[in-house]
Amino acid sequence: MEVAFILEKLILVVIVFTITLVIAMYSTLAERKIAGFMQDRHGPDRAGIFGLLQPLCDGGKFFFKEEIIPSGAHKPLFILGPVIAIITACISSAVIPWGQDLTINGKVISLQVASGINIGVLYMFGVIALGVYGIMLGGWASNNKFSLMGAIRAASQSISYEIGMGLSLIALLMVTGTLQLEDIVAQQSGFVNWNIWVQPLGFLIFITCAFAECNRVPFDLPECETELVGGYHTEYSSMKLGLYMFSEYINMFVSSALMAALYFGGYNFPFMYELGLSENWITIIGVIVFFLKIFGFIFFFMWIRWTLPRFRYDQLMNLGWKVLIPLAIANIVLTGVITLVKDTYF
Questions:
Q1: How far, in Å, CA of 16 to CA of 296, rounded?
Q2: Residue 210 and residue 256: Cα distance in Å, rounded?
Q3: C-alpha separations of 13 from 94, 261, 288 in Å
Q4: Could you read off the pLDDT tens digit of each residue along the chain, which spans 346 residues?
Q5: Which of 257, 254, 234 is nearest to 246 (CA)?
Q6: DSSP β-ladder status, 107-109 and 102-104
Q7: Three state DSSP letters for the chain
Q8: What is the residue extent of each domain of the chain?
Q9: Are 265 and 224 spatial neighbours (Cβ–Cβ below 8 Å)?
Q10: What residues have CB less than 8 Å from 139, skipping those under 6 apart?
């Protein structure tokens, strides 16, 4: 029984890891296609039909390019930086419930790698917080002032916006009463029960902080090509640069999955139990719906990149400390008052 359970989880880990890498890989193509569409030009269209082989060509380029390590760099930490970035990005999805349980030959299979963790939300925050160490180590070990400045920006930005993100989630946890992601998603069965209807302000704060945590425009100050050459990965080349870029797209995918799970019902969809389908079919459709929600958020990330200009650094800090954190605290107080009134009189 123990061997079967371990094998089941290993298979699920491989599937989730593969899907994550494929989505991250093709997000690079989607970004360039969307940019081309919004700028009234063609995106990549030479490698394969509609440019579908372009991500494979880009990956091959990263693998076979010459590896350069600056003579003044701290080599062990220079190598460790992108490794930490990609590992933390990949393991952050372990607690996300991708669908309801599947039943095959009488055996119930959970579509969550780490199921039953009663602190799933805290796990996500812990892993996200560790991700900045990869950036900091890479920037410091490069022995380059632009890299170091980008790393310092990344660290201060991460600290600032993690506070706002955490406070926005406190209000959501007050409503749901649990830290388990699978329970939060299960409570949102039915369109009217989605948390976006009871926590719209919390969602706006959360998605703004998610943009900052993923270093996406208009919060891409750690990379900021016009000021810092390339930011914390200025000195990186070959697959080490590829790992940093992959980790950014994986973080965007995981952030989209987290937002869909916390606020938009996850795998739940309207009238899912009125269709008269078997539980397995409802689970399969739910997984598809969940990924459609994720792709919608990924498109939104990309749309914003080609719509809004980059903030100045002082504007970035003012938004985090003077706007988002006070708003998040106000949202907690408002949620507490509404919950108290509801419990007292209703």
A1: 19
A2: 9
A3: 8, 19, 18
A4: 578 778 888 999 999 999 999 999 999 899 989 988 888 888 888 888 888 888 988 888 888 888 888 888 888 999 999 999 999 998 988 899 999 988 888 788 888 988 878 888 889 888 888 888 888 898 899 988 888 888 888 888 888 898 999 999 999 999 999 989 999 999 998 888 999 999 999 999 999 999 988 888 788 877 766 555 667 888 888 888 888 888 889 999 999 999 999 999 999 998 888 888 888 899 999 999 999 999 999 999 999 988 888 888 888 889 999 999 999 999 999 999 988 888 887 7
A5: 254
A6: antiparallel
A7: CHHHHHHHHHHHHHHHHHHHHHHHHHHHHHHHHHHHHHCCCCCCCCCCHHHCCHHHHHHHHHHHCCCCCCCCCCHHHHHHHHHHHHHHHHHHHHHCCCCCCEEECCEEECCCCCCCCCCHHHHHHHHHHHHHHHHHHHHHHCCCHHHHHHHHHHHHHHHHHHHHHHHHHHHHHHHHCCCCHHHHHHCCCCHHHCHHHCCHHHHHHHHHHHHHHCCCCCCCCCCCHHHHCCHHHCCCCHHHHHHHHHHHHHHHHHHHHHHHHHHCCCCCCCCCCCCCCCHHHHHHHHHHHHHHHHHHHHHHHHHHHCCCCCCCHHHHHHHHHHHHHHHHHHHHHHHHHHHHHHHHHC
A8: 2-345
A9: no
A10: 81, 147, 148, 149, 150, 151, 152, 154, 231, 232
Inter-residue contact 149 to 156 (CB < 8 Å): no
**What's the CA gap between 204 and 76, in Å, rounded?**
40
d(CA 299, CA 133): 28
Alpha-carbon span 256 to 295, nearest angstrom: 8
